[in-house]
Amino acid sequence: MPTPMIAWWQIWTDAARTGLQFWETLAASAVVIDRRMPMIDAGMRNPWTADHVELTGMVTEKATAFAKAGDSLAHDMSAMQGLWFQAMQDAWSLGTAGRMPSAKRVAASNDRAMRLAAGMIGAGGRALTPIHAKATANAKRLGAKR
After folding, report:
1. What angle separates helix 52-96 from helix 4-45, to the nearest 10 degrees?
2. DSSP state of 101
3. Cα distances (angstroms) measured from residue 110 to each of 36, 93, 95, 97
4. Which pLDDT tens digits describe the chain residue by residue (146 residues)?
5. Nearest residue to 118 (alpha-carbon basis) of 14, 5, 3
């Protein structure tokens, strides 16, 4: 684990990056929806002339992106659960020891708590990454048309 100052910096930069990805995803989604709604309308009116490649991609790309996001989140939550149990065990044992803990023990407990916080903050951004990538790529691809 890096020093506490570097860990805090990483937490804040992860949070900022996730926030930026969130807003970019929302903006890209507006472009994609604006371009695809007429395609959906045209496909509903005349299925024989519909853009089947684009209509199929609308479904499969979302399923793929959300599956990757879910996989990332499940992996991170599994790791966080282990750290959470260790942090609770630290809190319980430090609180019931009946004496002052050693500096080494407190440092180890703080290290686990910092890794838990950093992991939880970073998990959202890692899960959003495949969705953000697909949404922004679609916005660039579809936004140029018109």
Report:
1. 150
2. P
3. 50, 14, 14, 17
4. 567 778 788 888 999 999 999 999 999 999 999 999 999 999 999 999 999 999 999 999 999 999 999 999 999 999 889 888 988 888 888 888 888 888 888 888 888 888 888 888 889 999 999 999 999 999 999 986 55
5. 14
